[in-house]
Design a protein that fits this description.
The strands form 4 sheets. The chain has a 6-stranded antiparallel sheet with strand order 8-13-9-10-11-12, covered by helices on one side. A 3-stranded antiparallel sheet has the order 3-4-5, with no helix packed on it. The protein is mainly β and 236 residues long. α1 packs across α2. 9% of the residues lie in helices and 34% in strands.
Length: 236
């Protein structure tokens, strides 16, 4: 979904370019591995191992659309996400205080799979707990809550914060009474886009017909992207 996507010798933007894939090309992903974070059509640190024009290397999944629900295998020896090897399978008790790193890792567990959006369907987290596949359901899963509250009831676990206080693992959304259905939306904040002067941010979210996705969003342009929130049990 990006024009001229580079296939590189390693899973980072510093390695040599082996070939380039035109927009709209179908490629077979052999496996995926973690590497350098790339902010493209999507925001991800996953790279797909592919073969194109007789060259085998790694193309950032920031420019590759994978069918929702597809289980892409992890390449042998793929590194764990930093810091400290925290990932979505890191042991954690439901409803317990949680680190920002784990919130991000858990949110990416769904966005990396591109799970389809459906407020009437639930999906498992790595520990086998079920959460609703809508915007507040993804947030509830990322925070490892005991259930999936709606945008109206999620505020019992949060408190509002200023734009300047936002840190990765916090939330941005329109929440509270009257925000049910299409009147509310909430995403996991994953940092400001460098050079944007806090006008664009990386989000991890369940978005309408799009599904679970990591992407770049603007600040302050819509009903939902003007208020920051922090989980009451965030541990760092």
């Amino acid at each position: 979904v990006g024009d001229g996507v580079n296939v590189r010798s390693q899973a980072n933007t510093r390695s040599s370019i082996l070939t380039s894939i035109p927009s709209g090309t179908r490629v077979a992903i052999q496996c995926q591995t973690r590497g350098a974070s790339v902010a493209g059509v999507y925001n991800t640190d996953w790279w797909a191992k592919v073969t194109y024009n007789g060259k085998t290397g790694y193309a950032s999944r920031a420019y590759i659309r994978v069918a929702a629900g597809t289980n892409v295998p992890t390449c042998a020896g793929s590194p764990a996400p930093a810091p400290g090897g925290v990932n979505a399978w890191t042991p954690h008790a439901v409803g317990a205080p949680i680190s920002r790193e784990l919130v991000i890792a858990r949110a990416k567990f769904w966005t990396n799979q591109r799970l389809p959006y459906n407020w009437n369907v639930s999906y498992k987290d790595p520990q086998g707990e079920y959460y609703r596949a809508d915007c507040s359901g993804l947030v509830s899963m990322a925070l490892h809550l005991t259930w999936s509250p709606s945008t109206e009831s999620l505020t019992q676990y949060l408190h509002p914060i200023s734009k300047s206080s936002l840190r990765p693992g916090d939330l941005i959304g329109n929440l509270g009474p009257g925000t049910g259905g299409a009147n509310g939306h909430v995403v996991v904040f994953n940092g400001w886009v460098p050079g944007s002067n806090q006008t664009k941010f990386y989000s991890l979210e369940q978005q309408g017909s799009v599904g679970a996705i990591a992407q770049v969003r603007p600040w302050g342009t819509s009903y939902w992207n003007k208020q920051g929130w922090r989980y009451n049990k965030i541990s760092n």
